[in-house]
Amino acid sequence: MGHRKKTILILVTVLALFLVEVPGAEANINIRPGFKLGGGLSSNFGADTFDQSWQPSFMAGVLVELSLTSRLGAGLELNFVRRGSLYRLESDGLVYRERYLLDYLEVPLLVKFNFLRGRKPELYLYAGPALALNLRARLKVTLDDLEEAVAVDNLQGPDLLAQAGAGAVLALGPGCLLLELRYSHGLRTIATEPEADIRNKSLVILAGFRF
C-alpha cells in the first residue's frame, strides 16, 4: 500500500509541475485547465485471454492544456478510469458471466494538432502515451441471479497505453466546450504473473469544459 501511495504522489506532483509557467515564455504559452468525463466500451486482449467481450467503461478527470502555437498544443490529464472485460457462456438455459472491473489512476501526456482554425466548431487530433496505476481489480461472477465479487490480485499491475483520438471545441461563455472520441491500446501486460499476457483496450466518448 505504501508503494501505491508513493506512486500516486509522483503522478500528482507531475501534474502540479505541469502547471508551473516557463520563465520568459508567458507570451508564447497559454495554460488552460479544464475537466472531462464520459464513457464507452473496454475489453482485455492478449495471449492469455479467452473470448473476452466489450463491457461498459467510464472515465472522469481534470486536464491542463498548453497552446504552443496556433496549431500545436500539449495536454496532461489526471483521470479515474474503469476498464475491464466480459466473458459470457450460455448452456442449457443457464447464463454464466465473468466481469472484470479494473480501476485506474491514469496520467495521459498528449500532443494535439488543431485544424479548421476559425471555424465553428474547431477540430483537432491528438495522440500520446498514458501511464496508469491500478487502484482495484475485481471479478464479478454471475450465474443466473446469483452474484459473487472477489478481488483479483493477478491483474493489479501498472498499465502503459498508447492513446489517440479526435475532438471538437466550441467557444462557450468563459471557456470552450469539448467533445472527443478516444481509443486506448495497452502496450504492456497488466498481469502480475511472469510471462502472462493480458492487456487493456477501450473506446470512449468524452465531453468536457476548458477554461
Question: Any chance you could write out the topology, listing elements then pairs?
Answer:
Blueprint: H1 2-18, E1 30-45, E2 55-67, E3 72-91, E4 94-115, E5 122-143, E6 146-151, E7 159-172, E8 175-186, E9 199-210
Antiparallel strand pairs: 1-2, 1-9, 2-3, 3-4, 4-5, 5-6, 5-7, 7-8, 8-9
Could you explain how this protein is built, in words?
The structure is a single chain. The protein is mainly β and 211 residues long. It has one domain: Porin (Beta Barrel). The protein is 8% helix and 65% strand. It contains one helix and nine strands. It has an eight-stranded antiparallel beta barrel with strand order 1-2-3-4-5-7-8-9. A hairpin with a 6-residue loop joins β4 (94-115) and β5. The longest helix has 17 residues, at 2-18. It is elongated, with a radius of gyration of 19 Å.
